[in-house]
Amino acid sequence: MKREDYRQHISAQFNAELDEVRSHFLAMGGLVEKQVTDAIASLLDADSALAVSVQNNDRRINQMESGIDEDIVRILARRQPAASDLRMIIAIGKSITDLERMGDEAAKIARAAQTLCEEGEAPRGYLECRHIGSLVRTMIHETLDAFAHFDVEQAFKVMKADAEIDMEYRTATRALVTYMMEDPRAISRVLSVMGVLRSLERVGDHARNIAEQLIFLVKGADVRHVSYEQVQKKLES
């Protein structure tokens, strides 16, 4: 299934409605990407004002999710789409939930950043946050780009990137636990940083979920809970 296959309808209005839902989804994704980027920056730069802005903007993401939900319900009621069109609607319907949860994680990071800013001392773990944050931002960007271009190979690349983030997260967590054992005075601050790392790891999970939905959309294959070798076979079929 290719991008142009979603433009072959008798009804021009139906084409327009599908394009509008997809555009709204990508716009929501763009805002979520910015929220995650700003949340990480607010932590690393000790920018309390930016942290507050991220928390306030979370409402916009929730509103966008509700609006897309309403669009989807209207299309299902009026158009009764079948085959590839139905897959698109299902994929977007599931993916906006993941985007909304990414936004929630960005708000959590921003709240932790605000607290750490007020304490005034940069704790151990910021290097890990910078590294994993960079991986996660790339993952979000590539997920949305894959969705924009119906690129299943890039979606598969995103899926594999999630495994790297999980590994980096486990390594960082072990190092921070060791540090807390050596310096109990840092426990409170380091726990806050570990919460940030956990949020970043969850954002990666949600990005992977969206990549899986894109593969379902284009190939009609459910690639959840299967090995990379099985995914590759489905992409080649």
Low-confidence stretches: none
Quaternary structure classification = single chain
Helical proportion, percent range: over 70%
CATH architecture annotation name: Up-down Bundle
Number of domains: 1
CATH class: Mainly Alpha
Tally of strands: 0
- Tally of DSSP helical segments: 7
Which value, in Å, is the CA radius of gyration?
Answer: 20 Å
**CATH superfamily assignment?**
Phosphate transport system protein phou homolog 2, domain 2
Strand content: under 5%
**Biggest sheet statistics:** none
Broad structural category = mainly alpha
- The SSE string, one letter per element, is HHHHHHH
- Overall pLDDT: 91
Question: How would you characterize this protein structure?
Answer:
There is one protein chain. The protein is mainly alpha-helical. The chain has a single domain, classed as Up-down Bundle (Methane Monooxygenase Hydroxylase, Chain G, domain 1). Helix content is 84%, strand content 0%. The chain is built from seven helices and no strands. The longest helix is centred in the middle third of the chain and has 37 residues. The radius of gyration is 20 Å and the shape is globular.
Give the structure's gist in a few sentences.
InterPro entries: PhoU, PhoU-like_sf, PhoU_dom. It is found in: Cytoplasm. The chain is an all-alpha fold and 237 residues long.
